[in-house]
Amino acid sequence: MLNSIDDVLEALEGERYVAERSLGVAIHLALQLGKPLFLEGEAGVGKTEVAKVLASILDSRLIRLQCYEGLDVNHAVYEWDYPKQMLAIRLIEAGGGGERVEVDDIMSRDYLVPRPLLQAVEASAGGERPVLLIDELDRADEEFEAYLLELLSDFQVTIPEIGTIVADQPPVIVLTSNRTREIHDALKRRCIYHWIEYPDFDREVAIVMRKVPNVPEALAADLARAMETLRTMDLYKPPGVAETLDWAAALAVLGTKRLDPEAVDDTIGVILKYQEDIERVRSGGTEQLLASAG
Amino acid sequence: MTDLQPLADPLIHNLVHFTRLLRAQGLRGVPETTVAMLEAAEAVGLSDRDDVYYAFRAVVVARPEEVQLFDQAFELFFGSGRRWSPMEPIELKVHPRGPRAHVIAPTSLAADIGGEEPSEVSDEAGASAVTRLSKRDFADLTPEEYVQVQRLIARMVWQPADTKSRRWEPSRSGSRPDLRRTLRGLIGPSGDMMPLSMSGPKARRRPLLVLADVSGSMERYTEMLLYFVHAARGRLGRVEAFVFSTNLHRITRQLAHRDPKVALARVGGAVHDWSSGTLIGDALADFNRNWSRRIVRGGPVALIISDGWDRGDSDLLRTEMATFARNVHRVVWLNPLAGRSGFAPDTRGMRTVLPFVDDFLPVGTLSDLAAVVRLLESVPKRKR
Predict the structure, then answer these.
(1) Are B131 and B49 in the same domain?
(2) Residue B294 in contact with partner chain A when CB distance is under 8 A
């Protein structure tokens, strides 16, 4: 069903995800060539959302791995079920006769707890085509990146006690990074790369209208214009699209029809999370936001 | 979706040439790139120029900074929008081996170190020569001595202090039971005892962050100190380096080349405000705002190399220095003038930053550099 770039864009649209054409091309390529999709961009531009929407379009399971520093095989690939293993050992010993515990007794598939990467490989090996989201890869350390490189090149997991599980058809893989550090080129090279920009004015209005119910178009336009200004203001943490949506939702709850100084003042904490940034906007910036909002 | 076969030849021809152009632009351009673009062309078709552009970009570019270079190459090769005929043979004169003129313009710094190396500097100059050289101020070295000192820097032994990582490894004295190994230990001949395997945090090296002042007042030291930073990068791996005078420039990528001459020449090409004035506060503000969250991971030790001659606003310097010091594990300030007799850190800039500095050391001579390396071996585990 997704045989062209237009099909992809239409399907995204159907899931209320407003995408640039370049992102549509990247997704199309990733699906057609069976390569992972590597998405980078500032926080809150909708990288993770792409994976969720893809899973929903393809009507497949979303398997998510959230990365963090120190993420290791036990949490990313598989872990043994220790309590169950202990029980098994007890049972064998209680059987009397001084039986020895063998590897197969406690180290078979029954005692394995699959973590996201193994889940994805197993599901693919079983004929499914799940969407595997490896989120915020920049938070993991280089050691994990090296492991991932291996997994992405042959889609197989080896468990010494059990054997190798191979996925004939790779899952749909989406990797995201906020760029808190550079990801190694070797890994990026195996992927289709796309940098998600902040949306332009029209697209941001469209996103707000699509995603937040009960927002008048005039307010959506005010917000999009204010956001454009905020993102050029040299803040510690410029607000992303996620913040625009939060802001729109907050203002919708308050029943605001147009953005005015009072509304900005009441709700600024929804979009700016650093005290320095809030002060910067309050001291002279508020008018700037509204001036541009006309 | 077109069958590639009938249209393969001219397209392959063009993409091979385009790949060479990409390489000349400093992008990734290897046979694999050509293959990736062919696959991409097959997936999106060739009729729409924009789609082909996006598709090629997605398989060639690996970071946003490269988009502009890619755009230039694409435009240059396939022409601007009017005529879109990717199937007609395109010939472009490309000199892939030529210098990347738009990126690297050799400066005096590059020229200096790119010069002929004095041929016979005896490596066996002996311990006495080393001792003599190690106390000489970099600014007073003869050209021969200069090269000798550079060699000695390249040979320094680095053993910086480790810190705990968030990874765990088997350890007898560890604090956490390692259930995987414990259970494995139960297999085989059984006993009544169940030996508990333990694990403890794995050691890791703290990253090093260097901010080097390259303003006019530092001129006579800049090159040698960058040489030192290059050596540190070679030995330690995780080193992020920046230079500043009126602006801040990240030079980590340029320094990555193994050959210090090439690396320093690249730095020379990438930085445009050598030897101008110093705005330390502005440079730190730039760092805190635009780089801190990307660079400051894993509690780095920060080396700031500067004589503290600051022309900027001292209130700004104070706030930005405070933020900077909060974000790193330790601030080491290296001042090339500090080793001179009668030196007191009483410039306005120096007085402003000193409260936030953990270690203040001179870096005017080789033995000063050795002292810095030793300091890094004994960086305390706790932040001050």
Answers:
(1) no
(2) yes
- Give the distance from residue A121's alpha carbon to the nearest chain B alpha carbon, in angstroms: 22
Q: Is the pLDDT of residue B25 over 60?
A: yes
Q: Is residue B193 part of a domain?
A: no
Whether the predicted pLDDT of B118 surpasses 50: no
| B interface test, pick of A9, A153, A189, A280 with most B CB neighbours within 10 Å | A189
Query: A74 and B51: CB-CB below 8 Å?
Result: no
Asked if residues B304 and B284 have their Cβ atoms less than 8 Å apart, the reply is no
ipTM score: 0.81
Residue B305 sits in a domain whose CATH number is: 3.40.50.410
- Are B143 and B249 in the same domain? yes
Distance from CA of A69 to the nearest CA of B (A): 7
B6 close to A (CB below 8 A): no
* Residue B298 Cα, gap to closest chain A Cα (Å): 9
Asked if the structure places residue B278 within a domain, the reply is: yes
Closest CA to A60 of A178, A159, A194, A169: A169
A247: three-class secondary structure by DSSP: helix
Instruction: Give the residue extent of every domain in chain A.
Output: 5-69+119-195, 78-114, 201-281
CATH architecture of residue range(s) A5-69+119-195: 3-Layer(aba) Sandwich (3.40)
B293 touches chain A (CB under 8 A): yes
B71 touches chain A (CB under 8 A): no
Residues B142 and B14 in one domain: no
In chain B, residues with a C-beta closer than 8 Å to the C-beta of A29 are 40, 43-44, 55, 58-59
Nearest-angstrom CA–CA distance, B289 and B113: 33
Distance CA A33, CA A28 (A): 8
Identify the CA nearest to A131 among candidates A166, A193, A173. A173
In the numeric block, which tokens belong to residue A50? 């792409």
* Residue B91 resides in a domain: no
- Nearest-neighbour CA in chain A from B263: distance (Å): 19
Question: Residue B286: its chain A contacts at CB < 8 A?
Answer: none
Residues 6+ apart with CB under 8 A from A144: A67, A71, A72, A76
**Whether B271 and B320 share a structural domain:** yes
8 A C-beta contact, residue B218 and residue A117:
no
Contact residues, chain B, for A143 at CB < 8 Å: 167
In angstroms, the CA B304 to CA B242 distance is 10
Number of domains in chain B: 2
- Whether residue B53 is contained in a domain is answered as yes
Per-residue pLDDT band for A47 (boundaries 50, 70, 90) equals very high
Q: Comparing B217 with A217, which gets the higher pLDDT? A: A217
Question: Which residue shows structure tokens 């901010």?
Answer: B211
Q: Which of A4, A23, A182, A193 to mutate to test the interface with B (most CBs of B within 10 A)?
A: A193
Burial class for B191, CB neighbours closer than 10 Å (0-12, 13-18, 19+): exposed
Cβ pair B324, B284 in contact under 8 A: yes
Residue whose structure tokens are 């007794």: A105
Query: Is residue B326 within 8 angstroms of chain A, CB to CB?
Result: no
Q: Does B69 touch chain A (CB under 8 A)?
A: no
Q: Which residues constitute the domain of residue B55?
A: 4-78
Pair (B161, B235) in one structural domain:
yes
Nearest-Cα residue of chain B relative to residue A74? B180
Q: Which chain B residues contact residue A22 at CB under 8 A?
A: 54, 57-58
Q: pLDDT tens digits, residue range B242-265?
A: 999 888 999 988 888 888 888 888
Residue B359's SS3 state is strand
Tell me how far apart the alpha carbons of residues A158 and A167 are, in angstroms, rounded to a whole number. Answer: 12
The neighbour count for residue B189, using CB atoms within 10 Å, is 6
The separation between the first and the last C-alpha atoms of chain A, rounded to the nearest angstrom, is: 44
